[in-house]
Amino acid sequence: MYKLFFRLFFSRMDPEQAHYLAFRWIRLAARIPVLRTFVAAALAPRYKELRTEAFGLRMHGPFGLAAGFDKNAVAIDGMAMLGFDHVEIGTVTGEPQPGNPKKRLFRLVADRALINRMGFNNDGSAAVAARLHARVPVFRTVVGVNIGKTKVVPEADAAADYVKSTERLARHADYLVVNVSSPNTPGLRNLQATESLRPLLTAVREAADRTVTDRRVPLLVKIAPDLADEDVDAVADLAVELGLDGIIATNTTIAREGLKSAPALVAETGGLSGAPLKERSLEVLRRLYARVGDRITLVGVGGIENAEDAWQRILAGATLVQGYSAFIYEGPCYARAIHKGLAARLNASPYATLAEAVGADTRKAAV
Q: CA–CA distance from 116 to each of 20, 153, 223, 351 (Å)?
């Protein structure tokens, strides 16, 4: 029914308008007790065998919503209602910003992909922190906070901008993500170079520890799929050196090889997400796991359309997996289908627990 509705209605709307319309429906449903209970019962069944622990946090399962969908922390319970085991909000910047001029979001239906050049449009760290502080959770959900650089802040002052967001948001975050990999903020990806990344991550870690004294806020970094293999290795080594809690692999790509959609769509600038990202994101994940093993938690994201994709990420080394673009195409049953399929695959596998399956294929390949 959703796919028919998408074809007849959503596909004819501007993608950003369709996003906000669906977003409003999700938020509304989550505010009505009887409706949210009904929806959660239907779309968020819990499987005991999928219970997951990552960087000291317990979750109902390994599958979460990637950053970019709920930029301003306004629909956390709505997304939990739809079955996501964790919700990563943001990207949030130090100061509010409108993002890039519209039109800035494009559907590549033939490729089951999206191109976006949103430009970190968000309410800013102060407003989002206030919203998180006032939130009264309806569902028990792990909330990640993804932070990025304000566009007008010079690259040389990036660390101070990230620290500002950290000081405002860390106390409200179950985990914190430093995003240095979006292609839509000028100069941002330059921060992935280890000589820039080391002082940035160190400053954020110190700010989080200074701000939150009653617990240690897990810190992750999100990297691009377009990094050369040797740069992936360098980030992995740096993460181990600094004692990071996790790496998210990967963000969107600027590559455009092998796409089927109309050339005019393919030529749009921005980050490509969805099915075409699947192979490279999986390669990066395998490389990271081969480098860091179990010392750091890995999060697999990029082109996860179904349970088989999620299972392959787990076998490659991901403790957690995330989706976003496929949610647009699959609709509200997306998370439920992935949970059901993951439970079936785990029960048919030789692994007693999901944790035992993490990295199994990558370890075998190394022997």
A: 15, 21, 17, 38
Q: Taking 70 as the threshold, does the pLDDT of residue 114 lie above it? A: yes
pLDDT for position 309: 98
DSSP string, 150-168: -TTS-GGGHHHHHHHHHHH
The yes-or-no answer on residue 182 being catalytic is: yes
The answer to whether residues 276 and 258 touch, using CB atoms and an 8 Å cutoff, is yes
Please check the confidence at residue 286 and state whether its pLDDT lies above 70.
yes
Which position has the token pair 């109902």? 60
pLDDT tier, 7 (very low <50, low <70, confident <90, very high otherwise): low
The one catalytic residue among 182, 261, 281, 325: 182
pTM of the model: 0.96
Contacts of 162 (CB under 8 A, 6+ apart): 94, 147, 148, 149, 178, 200, 203, 204
Q: Which amino acid, one-letter code, is at 183? A: P
Strand partners, 177: 146, 220
How many Å apart are CA 307 and CA 338, to the nearest integer? Answer: 4
The more confident residue out of 10 and 335 is 335
How confident is the model at residue 188, as a pLDDT? 87
| DSSP three-state, residue 1 | coil
**163 CB contacts (<8 Å, ≥6 apart)?**
203, 204, 207
Q: How far is CA 111 from the centre of its chain?
A: 20
Q: State yes or no: pLDDT of 10 exceeds 70.
A: no
Residue 303 contacts residue 274 (beta carbons within 8 Å): yes
